[in-house]
From TrEMBL:
One of its GO terms (molecular function) is hydrolase activity. The keyword Hydrolase applies. SMART domains: Lactamase_B (SM00849). Keywords: Hydrolase, Metal-binding. Gene3D superfamilies: Ribonuclease Z/Hydroxyacylglutathione hydrolase-like. This is Zn-dependent hydrolase. CDD domains: POD-like_MBL-fold. Residues 12-171 form the Metallo-beta-lactamase domain. Pfam families: Lactamase_B.
Length: 249
């Protein structure tokens, strides 16, 4: 397998490029519209053909590149069937493997951050979206989020995986790139160790996080598989503009 972890600095989003060496087909997990050109250059430089984009959920902090990738190179849009997006070509469901060439991805429905959130398992690599972050987790106070559901998703679907499985989150804000199931079970301050559901719900209720500044634009745009609004305020324009420098993770 060909693997690249790519970083978008405005929303601190990780995009994952997975390529099948046998067929040359590739998928981008959680691509960001601001790094569209960078990602396509990476695909091309590796001699791959982008077959799919694959989002973990309807994002609130950036615009997905799914639709623009389809326009540019003809890649199909894969997204959770739960969200019933008319623009998606393939609806992802738990229990139905998703294949990219010889790569077989197992979708795991992990609601809590959003009700339609999915994680994706490929071999010993787990792409957790916002459900499980390094020493943290996604917030649960919008898009039908629910702390009880997130606790159940992580503890009953993710933490049952082997300890040495690698965890690749959708975001990190401290330049960390990967963790393991064992590490998160041992030291995640919200969900690890012997944290009870009641303790977790109190933690999430007491976060007092500010209202996401891009959510009112991102969610409608992502329900259309990645449409930037034409009336985007100037101070938010960088969420949709192509970024000159976007480091590779």
């Amino acid at each position: 397998m060909i693997f690249r972890q790519l970083f978008e600095p405005v929303s601190s989003t990780y995009t994952y490029l997975l390529g099948c060496e046998a067929t040359g087909k590739a998928v981008l997990i959680d691509p960001v519209i601001a790094t569209l050109d960078r990602d396509l250059r990476e695909v091309s430089s590796l001699g791959l053909t982008l077959a799919y984009s694959l989002d973990t959920h309807i994002h609130a902090d950036h615009i997905t590149a799914a639709l623009e990738l389809k326009k540019r190179v003809g890649s199909k849009i894969a997204a959770p069937a739960f969200d019933n997006l008319p623009c998606a070509d393939i609806g992802i469901e738990e229990g139905r493997p998703f294949s990219v060439g010889s790569l077989t991805i197992a979708p795991l429905h992990t609601p809590g951050h959003t009700d339609g959130h999915f994680a994706y398992l490929l071999g010993d690599r787990l792409f957790t979206g916002d459900a499980l972050l390094i020493d943290g987790c996604g917030r649960t106070d919008f898009q039908n989020g629910d702390a009880k559901s997130l606790y159940k998703s992580v503890r009953e679907k993710l933490f049952i995986l082997p300890d040495d499985y690698l965890v690749y989150p959708a975001h990190d804000y401290q330049d960390r790139r990967v963790t393991t199931i064992a590490q998160e079970k041992k030291r995640n301050p919200r969900l690890g160790m012997d944290k009870t559901l009641e303790e977790f719900m109190v933690i999430m209720a007491d976060l007092n996080l500010p209202y996401p500044k891009f959510i009112d634009h991102a969610v409608p745009g992502n329900k259309q598989c990645g449409v930037c609004p034409t009336d985007l305020p100037e101070h938010l324009a960088h969420y949709c503009e192509q970024i000159a420098q976007s480091p590779q993770g």
